[in-house]
Amino acid sequence: MTQAPNYSSICLLRLSAIGDVCHGVSAVQAIQKAHPNAKITWVIGKIEAMLLADLPGVELVVFDKKQGKAALKSLKQRFKDQQFDVLLNMQVALRAGFVARCIPAKVKIGFDWARSKELHSLFINKRIAPEAQAHVLEGFKGFAKAVGVADYKPSWDMPYTEQDQAVADELLTPEYLTNKLLVISPAASKAQRNWLADRYAALADYANEQGFKVVLTGGPTELEINLANSIVEYSKTPILNLVGKTKLKELLCVLKRGSLVLAPDTGPAHMAVTVGTPVIGLYAHSNPARTGPYLYQDYVVEVYHQNLLKQTGKTAEQVPWGRRVKGDDLMSQITVDDVKAMFDHVVQKESL
Length: 352
Hints:
Number of helices: 13
CATH architecture of the largest domain: 3-Layer(aba) Sandwich
Oligomer: single chain
CATH topology of the largest domain: Rossmann fold
Strand order of the largest sheet: 3-2-1-4-5-6
Number of domains: 2
Structural class: alpha/beta
Shape: globular
């Protein structure tokens, strides 16, 4: 087997989204262990950089997509006097391709043919090994392998401070810190991927009956705030509503304090994985085998496969990997009883 090069500088390109950069952290930290003398630079989105600021041993270079061509010009200027040994282009979006053009590197590694789209192939000169039906994180492991990293079990050392944890703990209050804690992060980026407010509330009530305190988390968008308020209104249980009240690192620390997280296809589900908190994932539109909470895929409640079969007449193995299904009301097919049953299973399995 050919020995991997001794890299002195490695650039990683993954701009978004929160869940994906969480997957990327495990790959970066595996690369750091294999190449301890290599300087690691990560070109990353503005919001995602807020979560990963001060990632140990990694220089984050923020690309703000809202600046358009000015952001590309700035990036090109930033890197004009250097050349990386290798660029790991871990995003197939066309925007990422234009970003890759601004990053000077001897070798530019991208995805295999099957996972390439949006002209990704034009911006790379080497590919990772193909892998059928792989989770997104497994794809990122492929980039680590491409620079000589032996197979590894993903782990995370997420960057947060004692102050971040102190703020989170103050928000949670002693009452919530001294009890079993169900953290519900109810909102995905699109409303159709969210479960119903009255059903989240029913799970909050059920969890409370089992001795859990319940916390709601999320960002400051109108969608998230309105959904959280509806859950509180439906619930018979006292719920601590922290939606819109935490920065990303503080949210990470709240998730760390959780005994269990309930979430749809959204970034905080993957954030919870990085701090070792079990996740019950709710999925209808995308295949959880590809995008589910990596360490807790056995805890997913999903109606994806039945809807894929209904809409296409094919199974996930018979369609392009990552194929989504369409429909505004698919999440309503996930019943309260389905999630209660999974809740009971996880509580028993995790000895909560």
